[in-house]
Design brief:
By secondary structure, the chain is an all-alpha fold. It has helices spanning about 1-25, 30-55, 60-70, 75-95, 100-115, 125-135, 140-170, 180-190.
């Protein structure tokens, strides 16, 4: 319905803004003003979509779910910061420490926000990250580092999952659940 069209329009505008950011060669005052107006309209449209979603949100059900989980729900707020730090450190290492930790953290965090709001299979923020890092290092180096970083994160997730599943297979008694141990073994093999 309306949410699909709003999301599609937001994606369209974000693509236009990103392409203009990547293709912008001159930094004259008129271009900067035009860019500022486009960004303002983009953020205003995003805020309108967010407001629409919040208005339609069943607050009572959300509060009931939060109350049923309890204090552990605070992990949902702080957990993203936990993985942003190693991601930023990975980016620093891949760029041979030519950027500061704060620049790497800002790049990872803001790029991951792009990934979160664009329905591009988590790849909407990577061009932004490469372009942002090109302020500090050559574009070729920043692009290489972003691709390598993405591969490292993808592979580490697969390896972590396989290790945890292997530990579960060794440590947990599956004798009372027929077929589950074989399913986990097959899943571990497929994951690796």
């Amino acid at each position: 319905g309306i949410l699909f069209w709003c999301s599609t329009t937001a994606l369209f505008f974000s693509i236009i803004v990103i392409l203009r950011l990547l293709g912008r060669q001159n930094n004259d005052e008129a271009s900067a003003l035009k860019h500022s107006v486009i960004m303002f309209i983009f953020y205003l449209f995003g805020a309108a979509i967010l407001l629409y979603l919040v208005i339609r949100l069943p607050i009572g059900e959300v509060m009931e779910a939060i109350n049923s989980v309890g204090a552990e729900v605070t992990w949902l707020i702080f957990f993203p910061a936990v993985w942003a730090i190693p991601n930023a450190m990975t980016l620093m290492v891949l760029l041979d420490y030519r950027i500061s930790f704060l620049n790497a953290l800002y790049t990872q965090s803001s790029g991951d926000r792009f990934n979160g709001i664009t329905p591009l299979l988590g790849m909407g923020g990577e061009p932004y990250k490469a372009k942002h890092l090109s302020r500090f290092v050559p574009l070729q180096d920043s692009s290489r580092a972003i691709v390598q970083s993405r591969l490292i994160h993808a592979l580490s997730g697969v390896i972590y999952t396989a290790v945890i599943l292997a530990i579960c297979l060794i440590m947990i008694d599956f004798s009372n659940i027929p077929g589950l141990k074989m399913a986990l073994i097959l899943f571990t093999i497929v994951k690796v």
